[in-house]
Amino acid sequence: MPLTAAELTAARDALLRARAEGVRRFREQNGEDVEYRSDAEMARARAVQDSEIARAASARPASLRFITTKGF
Predict the structure, then answer these.
(1) Residue 63 domain flag
(2) Domain of life of the organism in this record (predicted)?
């Protein structure tokens, strides 16, 4: 199940907070421990999250359903 834009935004905010505090190891929302080797790696992770958020926010529905009538 793909993450929603809100969930991705919350994960990005946690990463930004950890990066601002100078922390390279922290526990993500799903309970997984993540350790980044450098600030550059954290910046790349944030860039990936930003692109995923943009894609999730602009996602179109997989199908459209038209309901028509003949009229009366």
Answers:
(1) no
(2) Bacteria
